Amino acid sequence: MNVARISELDRRTTQAGRANSGLWLLEFERKEAQRPDPLTGWNGSGDTKTQVRITFATKDEAIAYAERHNITYHLVPATPVKLKLQAYADNFR
Fold first, then answer.
1. Chief localization class (predicted)?
2. In 3D, which of 28, 21, 24 has the Cα closest to residue 59?
3. Spatial separation of the C-alpha atoms in residues 72 and 62, rounded to whole Å
4. How many domains does the chain have?
5. Which structural domain, as residue segments, surrounds residue 77?
């Protein structure tokens, strides 16, 4: 069974602008655990659906896509952004 996670894209720490904000992401959950490759030592698994990441403009579009393709999904709420506004001079108090 396909289980997907639908969440709102967060702004990256290194991103100053508001580009790509408000987009919604659908990504599949892992079915099998990762295991180390005996030759290289890298972690991996045979589950390739975790590599699929689809973005949508709205939450409703992402939900409609999941329901159209019979994908079980759950919504992950976005973390609230807390801004700490201070003046440069406050660094030297």
1. membrane
2. 24
3. 12
4. 1
5. 3-92
